[in-house]
Design goal:
mainly beta
C-alpha cells in the first residue's frame, strides 16, 4: 500500500474540496521511503563528497541548484560519526550541534516535492515539527535511534513551488536531517504529471497539520 494511503488510513484524515493549489504534508514514520511522493517521481541525493565532521551551509541538489541551510549544520555520516538508526540508510546526516534547535531548508527553484528524514540526539522520543512555506505542518515523534520521514508535495503540478521547510525540535536542543529526495519536473514531465492530476483535481485537499 502506498505510503500516503497508509498514513491517511492510520491517522483518519478528513479531506474536503478546496479550489486552490495546496502543499500536502506526509508523516511517513521510520520505514524506508517510497520512490514516489504524491504525483512525483523522486530523485535521491547522492553521497555528499565533501569532508565529514565539518560544518556546511548547503548541500548540492542532483537536479540543479542547492538546499541552503539557515544555520551551519555539522556534516556526518551514518556509521561514520552518527550512530543513530535510519532504517538501514548509510548516507549523510546534517546536525545542528551548537547552532540551535531548528533549521530552515531553502529549496531549489521550482521544487514540487521534497522528502527528508529527521531525528535528534536523545534516546527517547520527542516531537519534531516541519513547516512548509504555506503553513502546512507535520509533527512526528523521533529519537536518535529512529529517524522519521517527512514529505511535502504540491497538490497541483502547476501551482506554486515549495520554497522552504523549517524543521525544529526545541525539546531536544538540536535537530538532524538527511536522506533527501526531490522532484523538479521539467516542462514536458510537468505536463505529464498535470495529465495524471486531472482526475483528482476536483478533490483538492485543505492544507492541514499532521501528527505522526
Amino acid at each position: 500500500m502506498p505510503r500516503l494511503h497508509r498514513v491517511c488510513i492510520l491517522l483518519g484524515f478528513c479531506f474536503q474540496p478546496y479550489a486552490a493549489a495546496d502543499i500536502i504534508g506526509v508523516a511517513g514514520g521510520w520505514g524506508p521511503p517510497d520512490e514516489t511522493l504524491g504525483l512525483y517521481e523522486m530523485t535521491k541525493f547522492p553521497l555528499d563528497d565533501r569532508p565529514t565532521h565539518e560544518y556546511v551551509t548547503y548541500v548540492p541538489s542532483p537536479l540543479g541548484g542547492q538546499i541552503d541551510f539557515s544555520v551551519p549544520l555539522f556534516h556526518v555520516r551514518v556509521g561514520g560519526g552518527w550512530g543513530g538508526g535510519w532504517h538501514g540508510y548509510e548516507g549523510d546526516v546534517y546536525a545542528s550541534y551548537g547552532t540551535g534547535d531548528s533549521v530552515t531548508l531553502d529549496l531549489p527553484e521550482q521544487t514540487r516535492a521534497f522528502y527528508f528524514y529527521a531525528s535528534n540526539i536523545l534516546d527517547h522520543p520527542v516531537t519534531i515539527a516541519a513547516v512548509a512555506d504555506d503553513g502546512t505542518t507535520v509533527y512526528q515523534k523521533a529519537q536518535w535511534a529512529a529517524a522519521v520521514y517527512f514529505g511535502f508535495y504540491q497538490d497541483d503540478p502547476f501551482g506554486p513551488p515549495i520554497e522552504w521547510i523549517e524543521v525544529s525540535c526545541p525539546s531536544a536542543g538540536m535537530v538532524a536531517v538527511g536522506e533527501f529526495a526531490i522532484a523538479i519536473p521539467g516542462p514536458g514531465a510537468l505536463a505529464l504529471v498535470g495529465m495524471r492530476a486531472v482526475g483528482p483535481i476536483s478533490g483538492r485537499r485543505r492544507r492541514r497539520s499532521l501528527v505522526g
